[in-house]
Amino acid sequence: MNTIYIDFTEIGDYEDFYTQLKEKVKLPEHFGDNLDALSDVISGDLEMPLHLEFVNMSVDHLELFEDLLTTLEDAEDEVEDFTFTYYLEQYEDEGEEGEDEEIEEK
């Protein structure tokens, strides 16, 4: 299975997201930077099996990218061999090392 990691440490808006996605995924030339186009390429243009994993998301990212997360969760339900997960960044407490926390919403 091909796993693509998208690190949200450097992502502040949708333009940043699509820039990083294009660096990591071979998208068709006709790809438009929008959620409908993303859904279309997942359901027809990308080679499967594919796992898309978002790391280092903040609570602010969850709000800003709510529609993106919903689109990918829908694609996961509809496209065979496509899976998607995302992880929130976790801040270190004094004396403790931080670990990523997996969030699964269904």
List the defining traits of the structure above:
globular; 4 helices; Barnase, Chain D; alpha/beta
Task: Provide a brief overview of the structure.
Belongs to the barstar family. The protein is an alpha/beta fold.
Description:
The chain has 106 residues and is α/β, with parallel strands linked by helices. It has one domain: Barstar-like (Barnase, Chain D). It has 4 helices and 4 strands, in the order E-H-H-E-H-H-E-E. It has helices at residues 14-24, 35-44, 59-64, 66-78; strands at 2-7, 50-57, 82-88, 101-103. Mean pLDDT is 89; it is low at 94-99. This is Barstar family protein. InterPro entries: Barstar, Barstar-like_sf.
Helix percentage range: 25-40%
Structural class: alpha/beta
Question: How far do the termini sit from each other?
Answer: 22 Å
Q: Which CATH class?
A: Alpha Beta
Kindly provide the radius of gyration, computed on alpha-carbon positions and rounded to a whole number of angstroms.
14 Å
Global morphology: globular
**Strands of the biggest beta sheet: in what spatial order?**
1-2-3-4
CATH fold-level label: Barnase, Chain D
Give the full name of the CATH homologous superfamily: Barstar-like
Strand residues, percent: 15-25%
In sequence order, what are the helices and strands, one letter per element? EHHEHHEE
